[in-house]
## 1
Amino acid sequence: MNDQLDYLAKRATAGKLSRREFMGKASALGVSAAAASTIFATAAKAASHKTGGDLKIGSTGGESTNSLDPATYASQVPYHNGRQFGDTLVEVSPTGEIEGRIATSVESTPDAKTWMFKLRQGVEFHNGKTMTGDDVLKTMERHSNEDSKSGALGVMKNIESMKVEGDTFSVTLKNANADLPYLMADYHLIIQPNGGMDNPAAGIGTGPYQMEVDEPGVRHMYSKFANYWGDDGHFDSVEILAINDATARTAALQSGQVHLINRLEPKIAGLLARAPGVSVNSTPGRGHYVFIMHTDTAPFDNKELRLALKYAINREEMVEKILRGYGSVGNDMPINAAYPLFDGSIEQRMYDVEKAKMHYAASGHDGSPIILRTADGAFPGAVDAAQLFQQSAQAAGIPLEIKREPNDGYWSEVWNKQPFCASYWGGRPVQDQMYSTAYLSTADWNDTNFKNPEFDAKLLAAKAELDLTKRKAIYSEMGQLVREEGGLICPMFNDFIDGVSDKLVGWEVDPNGELMNGQVTRKMSFA
Amino acid sequence: MHPILKLVSQRLALGLLLLIAASALIFIGTQILPGDVAQSILGQSATPEAIANLRKDLGLNEPALSRYFSWLGNALQGDLGTALTNGQDIATSMGKRLGNTLFLAFWAAVISVPLAIFLGLLAVRYKDRWPDKLISGVTLASISIPEFLIGYVLMYFVGVKLGWAPSVAMINDSMTLGAKLHAIALPVTVLTLVVLAHMMRMTRAAILNVMQSAYIETAELKGLSSFQVIARHAFPNAIAPIVNVVMLNLAYLVVGVVVVEVVFVYPGMGQYLVDHVAKRDVPVVQACGLVFAAVYILLNMVADIVSILANPRLRHPK
């Protein structure tokens, strides 16, 4: 192996090169694809060999009000807690395929209405009990029954019945859904003993680490579970520290008190990347920052006005100034290239003063200021973004008035209530789920009040369509409908920006979520 | 009854009334805030169905007044209840946080109070000369800089660059006292810098005031050294205003350090309270409010009693 290839292999071992990057660079050195693949596999394997050590994660989004009950997870620290002690039926792989966890395989009837999950045998809970199909059934019932207050209730609504026979858990749906396994990968749906009916917040699951200390808003400590069923999870212990202050989080990483941090601010990510001993990993994801208009409320019930506003926003400027380049431009639909079956040929909407003026004139708006509500908590930089929007709209003669709202109560009082405000979406693993969650006429979180029968019909058709080419075509039409008719102004998709200590290896790019979709403690290890 | 005992019992009774009034105010405040605990817990991911289920579970459909009185009844019996958000026992989880807050406040006080008084005495001794000006200048500068900025600056230089003390001041039960003290070195330094100036200036002013008196001149004529004059004759007579300001600062160290807690990720009461206000978790907010009010009332009472004890005229009223 020549020096350069050796260097590349080391980079790959350190997790700094993805497989694709490695293959590209290796082939540039004249190595055959097969050989390069073998080298990469060896290098990547070397990365995952070390076991032991105490991993510390500094995470934002930890409050003393947090509970270990998976149904309540709504912020980052609880999310990562669930990843330590719990397992879902299936998981979405970094490349977007369904991977088995508690379920070893998934099958469906040809009409995509009944889904069968074959359950792994010999899986043990941290309390010593062996997991049974009944535990799985009870878990799903707890998240979907009428008393449920689960964050996953929305994704469970379509389920008509569930049953367990032998080692198979099957779900029958009201309407066909070809993407059901992706819904079952929801991070709330952690299998608990007796479904968590007895003590939902006990923190007992089947994951690689068992809970040792639970101090909400301060720290959560886990130790390696000796009887874990899988072969991932290489640390002796994992400690998650709630560090909500971005500066404190960065300082903790730099001073070596933690090994991983999430949600780096774009402002300091560039500076931190130059610091010794740490690297900044930016992962393009599906999360996006948005301005949303209620399409059924004046003046936003006027399509021309909506188009005027869509042309009056400068997306490149936002990516550059708000995200500092850690992201990509949006196209007024909630889907980007990180989704499977994305149609890249849809024309990118640009900032166009002339078109904005034209549509604004066509709308016949009386020229009174249009009120845009925003808050720092709407998304990082939301107030600045609103101001940039105001200026670019001003150039097209559209008067925007910014109304700054308190962070406190923003999600209950402004979002989904006021007709025009800033917000964000975390993205979903597949297009169907994103559209069903927020663009279907009857969706609970239809935050643009987008009610389009044509769109709904296409969504239902896509759900039952198992032919991927046809589905892709339907999704493309749906995307264009939202882009033309919808109330969504989507200027940018934000990257996940994580800080990682150089002491760790095994990083891989995973668009499903921050910190490798929460899999850092399973897949990474100390060098 | 001895007048002092009578005073203390009067103050205690008044303090209790004040506490109940404070709890009513806090309850009203949390009712005025937009949104309720169910909405706050579920956040952006709330569905109307989930909110309704949660409201029912948490008993939020009861009228506000009956919720307040059932809480008050339980609180008077010493039962603070459980947090609405995560079901943890409030007394236990708050006790831990309170312990941490008192730990930090105690060490900050142990360093800052003697230091402030000593610096104040020193400033009087070298009045209008360079030590006085240096002490005043430095302490005034440190109180004028926002505490989070001092925190960040210390964190960067001492924590990250020099690596002398951890930038995250997290303590837990399994740590030894030495490890805990090492962990809180930076926040204690910041708090000391913040409270130093107020106490030091007050000490200086109070003593200078006394220094004009005739008995000080006598002491000087007796041939005592100037530091002895200050420490033995001036200081005891200036104690009342000094204790007052010391107590105010101690109260600040307990109830007002949320910014320092956030910057150094210290698991104290302030952060605990803010988290629960954000989630509208009324029972916890009430409990924290009670503790904070109690600390404030108690420390002020101590200040009053000490100033009475220190003054013979107040000690023996006609």
## 2
Amino acid sequence: MSVLRRITRSTVAALAVPAVLLALWWVLTADSESYYLPPLSQILSTFDDVWLSDRLAADVLPSLLRLLGGFLVAVLLGVGLGVLIGSLRRLRAFCEPVLEFLRAIPPPVLVPVLMLFAGIGDTMKVLVIVSGCLWPILLNTVEGVRAVDEVLVETCRCYGVRGRARLWHLVIRSASPQIVTGMRQGLSVGIILMVISEMFAASNGLGFTIIQFQRTFAVTEMWTGILLLGVLGFLLALLMRLFERRVLNWYFGLRQAQRGGSR
Amino acid sequence: MTSTTTLAAPARKSRAGAAGRLRGGNALLGVAGFATFLALLELVPRVGLVSPEYLPPVSRIGVALADLAGDPAFWTALGDTVRGWALGLAIAVALGVVVGFVIGTVPVLREFSASTIEFLRPIPSVALIPLAVLVFGTDLRSVLLLVVYAAFWQVLVQVLYGVQDVDPVAQDTARTFGLNRWGRMRYVTWPTALPYVLTGVRLAAAVALILAVTAELVIGAPGLGNEIGTAQSGGAVARMYALVIVTGLLGVAVNVLARRLERWLLSWHPSLRREVAA
Amino acid sequence: MTVMTQTQTQSRTGTEVLLDVRGVRKVYEGHGRSVEAVRDLTFAVGKGELVCVVGPSGAGKTTLLKCIAGLLAPTSGEVVLEGAAVHGPPPGMAVVFQEYGRSLFPWMTVRRNVELPLKEKKLPKARREELIHRALDAVGLADVQSAYPWQLSGGMQQRVAIARAIAYEPHILLMDEPFAAVDAQTRADLEDLVRSLWHRLGVTTLFVTHDIDEAVYLGQRVLVLSSSPTVVLDDVTIDLPDERDQLTTRSSSRFAELRGHVFEQVQRAKKQSAPVATA
């Protein structure tokens, strides 16, 4: 009985505020004559027409594929280089200042730079996404690899765990909390870059379409685009969280156990 | 809400001492690394691996940097960028701290706002670009809208962790000594949350710079981002690279300042003392 | 029964040498000054023996163990295991570390923790299954195979580490203050576990501890180390009956005598160590 009540309570808690906010938006804009703020009802009814027809395949999908491609390349590169740099103390000292500098460059300024090399096609956009996602993943991986527990390192030596097994079971797994943190930071930078590389120079994609709507003063359509971007951002973050729960299940358990012990 | 934003922190602490001991030799290697990086940037276009039209030798970029220093338009642009960044960051931090403390210390608010925060936080602030252009044009307010939206969540989330981290024993102790709600906030909650607030400020500072430059680049608000766009479309490639380097230096400065601030304000705090002693 | 075990002990102490530590010295260099942690250690462990090493805290016990395990290279002298000099961790050796919480992989279940070294040994699946099953059974953890280490108590985690060590089928088992971080009751249970495993498997065991009672209770011999820079002060044969019991053994007069003797040596070691700093 009390379990049921608790579930009901948490559902209400989760839905109450969003419901109220949406209702407010709906009611307050219902008779809106404002040019910038069309009624929510109108935005929602336009939504299907705008996005659920050709644009899904023509604009949304290419954007997402570029994001996915760039993100995956950045993960491979970032983890690979991160493990290498994190394991070799001298190499790390050699690279650190350069990496600190490269990381500090706001990634969007690479859009015009990479346009020089790769034009305005898919290559440029994927490269922009890679070059933005890479740094958080790379630097977090380096930190994670550095922090591998010495006792575990010695355990591996004693029990003859070397080579690929060591790399996977010791180095990457123990750096995985930091790697995932880097991936999450990288993903949110990646979404930004996906959108602005398309806003800056493109002939298709989500960012391109939204900025087109704005330029042609199709305000209701523009709002549907903003909503869609918001929902996409939320869904991608959700996916990332599911991935994290799966990969780092042990880590959350371990931390909880440690915290329980220390208090 | 998971506590993963601060994941890396505990593991890092134990190594701080070892890193300090090695610093001397490492500094030399770092200088060598940077020199190699510059030499590569000079050689690659000179040898013809990359066309110098796309990547001028670093010496020419250096000359362009020197030219920038004598160009008043550059200094104005730099000032615009810094102003947008600083104002936006200040607003986001103030909002984040106040909202975070109110929500964090009132359990009902916390419970009812969690889902909304989780939904709003991952919305990329660049989604607001068209709206900003439409409503504010290329005004500073456009920049501020993007910067504040992006930086606010960083601060808010950290403040919420911080308030949650308050030791219940300390709360009870304070209560038995007769501290009222305000006193407990001042002497128990705030000191506990301060390291988290500062982590939030550090993360927000970096994000704010990214968004400030983005707004200038995409919307065309005055500032370094806008200058980079202009240089690129005008074919002033060396100048463009020089400006990119300036944004990088700005980024480094922001990171260093944020870390200094953290260190300075937390010199009394046990979490930092432990780090030094290790 | 008693007669049987006694003859066994004698044959054990009399058998061939398995581990030979010859003049090991270890000096840590750094910061322009060097610290001599271990000065001169020479001793031998026979095949099948259970030898305890005891010394005051800071006596370079861990340094010694790491030199034997091949994790540290001695500055001079050598460690010979089964006739071959040790350079790097030898294959026939298993180590149980003091920090059980840090030597088990927190991202692996108990079973996978035990299995990993066996996989690296390229043992076939069926053989691995058998070894895992037997090892976990022997330490009384057969029913928590799929738990993660952090879900277990400290004592149970150390049992997992012991299971991993014995499943590896080592010729020699090194234990570095394995029970220093568990509570007294658990500790007594684990001590008896070590005795019974040693009896059953006959594996040569070198057990390092700072606890004199523990050393006397467990060992056939106790090596007493001085403070750093370390030398062997004494090599005490523990002539207690082979069948040991927490209650009767610890309350016997012979136990008290031996304990007193070792205690004296350790106290003396502490006093001598007043001027430790070396240039």
